[in-house]
Specification:
The protein is built from 8 helices and 9 strands. It is α/β, with parallel strands linked by helices. The chain folds into 2 domains: 117 residues, Ribulose 1,5 Bisphosphate Carboxylase/Oxygenase (2-Layer Sandwich), CATH 3.30.190.20; 84 residues, Ribosomal protein L1/L10, domain II (Rossmann fold). It is globular, with a radius of gyration of 19 Å. The protein starts with 5 loop residues before the first helix and ends in a 6-residue tail after the last strand. It comes from Desulforapulum autotrophicum (strain ATCC 43914 / DSM 3382 / VKM B-1955 / HRM2) (Desulfobacterium autotrophicum). Binds directly to 23S rRNA. The L1 stalk is quite mobile in the ribosome, and is involved in E site tRNA release. Protein L1 is also a translational repressor protein, it controls the translation of the L11 operon by binding to its mRNA. Keywords: Repressor, Ribonucleoprotein, Ribosomal protein, RNA-binding, rRNA-binding, Translation regulation, tRNA-binding. Belongs to the universal ribosomal protein uL1 family.
């Protein structure tokens, strides 16, 4: 395991590793432990009491963060005809024409999210091997396969995120930037946690929210007491 630098070690001393904090305390500590010059992303990792190997315990969904992500989200749309104009008017950065599709096949990924109208899924399917591993494959379950492309583009631009529990039972997502300050970050974190709770599988037994940890890109993790979500 690589050793952390002096600054990381110094900041870690501010945090009681055995303690479980409420939302406000956790975010304030996390921001106070930021020691780099750039505007770090704030992430949250939630370990759930589920077994993702079972389909009825898969936790997956989307949530619109009240204060967005604090970064520009570049959106690519697979559409044709009037839906192209609708997507561009809503703020889409790219329309996947034949030239763009060829660029993607050659390894171009200058976008963060992809949306497709249902009638374009034949084209999208041919790119599954390159889009899928990067989490860029449009999916009806996350609202990115739809004829309402304007709404989908606007939501992604505003900070809508999609998430899915990993094999280890952990969901890890960004919830904003250090520059947001504690108040806006708390609002984003609560919106995300409330959605996770709402998606609790009926087959999940025992403790559902096992651990919740927030951290900045380079900073140490701060644990939130799951009891504060009730």
């Amino acid at each position: 395991m690589p050793k952390h630098g002096k600054k990381y070690t110094e900041m870690s001393k501010k945090i009681d590793k055995q303690a479980r904090y409420d939302f406000n305390e956790a975010l304030e500590l996390s921001l106070a432990s930021s020691y780099v010059k750039f505007d770090e992303t704030v992430d949250i990792a939630v370990r759930l009491g589920v077994d993702p190997r079972h389909a009825d315990q898969m936790v997956r969904g989307t949530v619109a963060l009240p204060n967005g992500l604090g970064k520009e989200v570049k959106v690519l749309v697979f559409a044709k005809g009037e839906k192209e104009k609708e997507a561009l008017d809503a703020g889409a950065d790219f329309i996947a024409d034949e030239e763009t599709v060829a660029k993607i096949k050659d390894g171009w990924f200058g976008f963060d999210k992809a949306i497709a109208t249902p009638d374009m899924m034949g084209t999208v399917g041919k790119l599954g091997r390159v889009l899928g591993p990067r989490g860029l494959m449009p999916n009806a379950k996350t609202g990115t396969v739809t004829f309402d492309v304007a709404k989908a583009v606007e939501e992604l631009k505003a900070g809508k995120i999609d998430f899915r529990v990993e094999k280890a039972g952990i969901i890890h997502v960004p919830v904003g930037k250090v520059s947001f300050g504690p108040e806006k970050l708390v609002e984003n974190v609560k919106a995300f946690i409330n959605m996770i709770i709402a998606l609790k599988p009926a087959s999940s037994k025992g403790t559902y929210l096992k651990t919740i940890t927030v951290s900045t890109t380079m900073g140490p993790g701060v644990k939130i007491d799951p009891m504060f979500t009730k």
